[in-house]
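Before going further, learn to read the protein records used in this course. A complete example follows; check for yourself that the lines match position by position.
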Amino acid sequence: MEQTARNGWWPWRLDIVQACNGYSLICVPLYDTLGSGAINYIIEHAEVDVVFVQDKNMKEILSADCKSAQRLKSIVSFASTTREQIDAATNSGVKVHSWNEFLQMGKEYPSDPLPPQPLDICTIMYTSGTSGNPKGVILTHESHATFVKGVDLYMEQFDDKMTVDDVYLSFLPLAHILDRVIEEYFFHKGASVGYFQGNILALRDDLMELKPTFFAGVPRVFERIHEGVLKAVAELRPLRRMIFNILYNHKLSWMRAGYSHKTASPLADMLAFHKVKARLGGRIRLIISGGAPLSNEIEEFLRVTSCAYCVQGYGMTETCGLSSIGFPDDLSLVGTVGVASTYSELRLEEVPEMGYDPLAVPSRGEICIRGKTVFAGYYKNHELTKEVMIDGWFHTGDIGEMSPDGVLKIIDRKKNIFKLSQGEYVAVEYLEKVYSFTPIVEDIWVYGDSFQSMLVAVVAPHEDNTRRWAELNGRKGSFTELCALEELKKYILQQLRAVAEKNKLRGFEYIKGIVVDPLPFDIERDLVTPTMKKKRGQLLKYYQSDIEKLYRTLTEGRK
């Protein structure tokens, strides 16, 4: 295998990663949530030579759609391979090896390690993107080593030191940058890593089995934990439920007064909250939420009831993980992503078109990051790299608000791109263009709250097509009366779903609920500009109550 060989795989295997590191081989993660088209693109774009793959994903590589598989030299399956798979690969000029065969080859043909230099490429990690092809983020060995050293310094500030007895539950999406660097830190400390089964419904079983001390996830995971605890509390007898609430408020008041979660109320922990800790495996010491904002209510709830440290962090693939992180036992940081992490510098840059000024009060602007953990550029995309890297500062596109003592809060997105609570990026302009192909839709505004996991929309129906639908379904009335019908809402949702399926949108890009407005978005209500561009801030303000009501209905319907 050549020094410059690229390797992709399902699933993310840190043993393979470390082996590649030892021989200066570049790793390129592949994961099936990107879709077969993206996998085909990445293999070709990154010039991948060898793919490590689970047997269930072998068909993706060998399918007719994955034309770039023909450039591969070898495929290594973690399970045994079938004759059909071997024949299909051979016809494409690719060698297939089982995992055991691969290990045996290493024993028969050993070679000395070839340690990398700091600025050598460690990995090319492709971001899922919002539309178009994924971007290949180049991360060096220096970036990874700097991050691990920074976590060491961060953890040294607290009484609870990381030891070889610690266990990390790897739950984040496979090939997620935060998951990778956390695992590397745990291996650096000689601690243990366990992997969840891949089924969120079985997450509690994984927690009980692994009994982790450290858990990192996206807000949606913690929302489920919060919902589960509240459901259990609601099923208690009135007296016990009242006692739980009293203990909660008692401990919260002492934590707000400056006491740590351990000293605020040991009695409350013993009587009530040890049961919440037990639901998380019983040994949890540190919880980190990232990928999207965690609501203040849930963060506060976890800080009180989990009997563990709980913080939020902020970072991107381009920053090799967290660039800011909160401090445990400081309730003033609830709702923020903390301060700049070790070896990272943060600053805000003015965004005049959105009215954000770092020199104003409060200080607001685009978040820019500098440091050795920042990526080296986008692979084979120098122009895009120049757009986001200016004078050594990476321009994130996120809008932040920074307090005088350096505490950061994420408040907006420079472009019309945002994250849902499970951490998935959504490009609303792209989705609006796709959904506008629906004949029943005259205009549409897609909205997603970063504290929610679902997209909703306001739809202005096409009047002629709506009347045609009404005639076919025996409905009469004015256009306004027709738009108020629940049957029309259901029909529009069906048509939107059909368009989403036809255009192969991802599940989180499906619209789950709509508000129907018989009036098109107009200048008179200040919803669009004279050139008919949507004023998204005004749209949210105008439809705020309808959107909030719709989210409540959807949330209640899922319980």
